[in-house]
Amino acid sequence: MTTAPTTAGTVRRPSPERRRQRVLTVVLGVISLFTVAPLFAVVVLAVSPADAPTIPYALPDSLTLDNIVRVFTIGEFPLWLFNSFVYSTVSVIVVLLTASMAAYALARKRFPGRNALLWAIIATLMVPLQATLIPTFILVARLGGVNTLWGMILPTLANAQAVFLIRQFIRELPDDYFEAARLDGAGEWRTFVAIVLPLIRPVLATLAIFVFLWHWNDLLWPLVVGQSDQARTLTVGLATLNTETVSTANVMAATMVSFIPCLVIFAILQRQIVAGITAGGVKG
Amino acid sequence: MQPGKLVASSSAPPRADRALPGPSSGSGSAAGKTDATADSPAPYQRDRRRQRRREAISGLLFVLPTLVIFGLFKFLPIAGAAAMSLTEYRLNGDVTFLGADNYTRLATDPNFWQSLRVTIAYVLIFVPLIIVVSLAGAVLLDKLVRYAGAFRSLLFIPYLSSFVMAGIIWTWIFSTDGPVNAALAGIGAGKVPFVSGHQLLVLASLAAVSVWKGFGYSMLIFLAGLKSQPAEVHEAARIDGAGPWKAFWHVTLPLLKPVTFFVLVIETIVGFQVFDTIYVMTGGGPNRASHSLIYFLYDEGFKFFDFGYAAAIGVVLFFIVLVLSLGQQRLVERNET
User: Fold this and answer.
1) Model confidence over A139-188: pLDDT tens digits?
2) What are the residue boundaries of the structural domains of chain B, listed by start?
3) Min Cα–Cα distance to chain A from B180, Å
4) What architecture (CATH level 2) is domain B111-336?
5) B84 contacts on A by Cβ (under 8 Å)
6) pTM metric for this prediction
7) Which of the 8 DSSP states describes residue A58?
8) Mind listing the domains of chain A with CATH numbers?
């Protein structure tokens, strides 16, 4: 975190630097409090009994899980949860597999049209998803994919960032690995599964988190393609709950449930998330 | 997360094919090894050619799934967006070619100009706000010696939430009987209609929600930029007698310029795509006060089913984002030279 000279300085002149650090800690503490307070309020509202005041100035006297239990009986909530889960995990798995395969070939193999394909994929990064929302919807509708999970998943499998990032990663790996595999006479698929995939695990972990979070939190595409109550994802369902006559406590309970997977992922894989963002940022 | 955010720059050019060892040099070295037989290069060449063909075939097989997926769900819709924007495309599949009519209609549609004004006003509030907040967070975290990791995590947590979730929470926080208005009542102020009042108030409230949800990302980018600044420069500034403020304005900030450009463009693009919070919190209202560009597109497409017109709005959005990205590249290049 800090450089050695600073620490040495603190030891030599303890009081001013230490006072500065104390002020800094307090300031950051207050900011963090304000940042986290809305999330804390969600939890408090979700576990408060129905007769609790609308603004929780303190923890309620008695906690209840009633709101959370009742959420699962509202509308098609369990189905929304399931849809979000499928939409997110299937996309992660297929994107990572197909993007790794393509990235390996684009980084390590010579074949006709390679550079053209790479440029075409990178160029699509310039096109915002909303710009192609209408034609993508028409296409999925023509294929009969409206209100289906496969219709929701398919267009999101074209993930240019995944291909680009994995390719960058593979390019920076030493040639020796691939040379060794070739000399061992390993087949193409075996080389990919036994050599490439284990080597690119760090970038796959980072991508898995971001692709999951992006799908889990996505609204616009699931909103237009999953219109029926049964086809909604959690975000779409939550957005409709908020406008309907559902009690604040229940909406907050549903919101809390939707956030738990994100929080668990962050708790376990924090380092990959930070590394993923800063690696992307440094390049800019 | 926002698609497009993860990749900082798509400017890395694909490496030009390394010059293949030509057949002549290949046969030359082969001949050098087995100089006795005159026809030894031929089988070697054949071998290489076969190997190269095998490599090409396996390469194509590896990209095939991605090629199919991108062809169908990226390249086709991009071409489709351009094509559809020139037609009247109705729900029942009736297509009429209109030429540029959708674009001339856009140019004279007060709702389009309203949504463009709304979006630009929103961006002008959102972008400076998120840059100041995320930069301040990063600077404080950078200076902190102990517990910096814990505070970083706490500040980053809202970024994990969805805009929908943020919208739901802040609808409650901003509501007339929510905590903010209760606090205002506590100091004797009247109720403030954050999401149903004056347009600038509504847009500022929406921007505040997005800043709360999104600043963690830019904060980490700023933090990485700060951490990579050479310690000697700051040491030199300190020895020269520059106080913390002076050092920040004259040393830290100028060194942070490329990172700031990057954050500026990313967040501007994010700002232009604002939709989720509006959908949850205001529905584009009151009275179109928060009817953003994407909301306009969504309405035209999925409320009025005027797909050709909605596609044209998408094309306009594409050009706005394109101009912003190219503008950033120009700025960065000019600063580097």
Assistant:
1) 999 999 999 999 999 999 999 999 999 999 999 888 888 887 777 777 88
2) 38-103, 111-336
3) 10
4) Orthogonal Bundle (1.10)
5) 134-135, 138
6) 0.84
7) S
8) 4-64 (no CATH), 75-283 (1.10.3720.10)
